[in-house]
């Protein structure tokens, strides 16, 4: 029997694996939350598959997404990242990643964990939408607007409402699998 999937993942094996194993699965681990936040930052204005194909290059270039190390990056490290053809070499996004790592640590200090902070916006449980078509999936919501505003107030960069909503989808804060997708009831 053929599994029914959300149509956005198409036929690309990398995209299918991401859809089937990661997208929409609730993430409460700070290290993974930072990884997704960082990747979503680099996705701004680009397609997710572009970032997904470079994910392992990002992992290598950014010390395994270790936000504690990234928060301390020097200008020379930033300059070397901007020379790395394996990643998206956007100066503002690279600098934002360092700034976001620093802000991430401050949120941890205030709330105990970034997870406690970000999941408090949904009372600790995923929002389960009932989407029948991809056209019904919003690019942002009043909730992603509020989270974006709060993140920006805390010093985060490249965290507009659309980036935040994509982060919510990726980390399972919201379940936007279509109702006829085999993953809808699994996540």
From TrEMBL:
Cross-referenced SUPFAM superfamilies: DNA-glycosylase (SSF48150)
Coiled-coil regions listed: none
Keyword Hydrolase: yes
Classification via Pfam families: Adenine_glyco (PF03352)
InterPro entries named in the record: Adenine_glyco, DNA-3mA_glycosylase, DNA_glycosylase, Tag
Broad enzyme group: hydrolase
Keywords per UniProt: Glycosidase, Hydrolase
EC number: 3.2.2.20
Presence of keyword Heme: no
An example Gene Ontology molecular-function term: DNA-3-methyladenine glycosylase activity
Protein name as it appears in the record: DNA-3-methyladenine glycosylase I
Originating organism: Patiriisocius hiemis
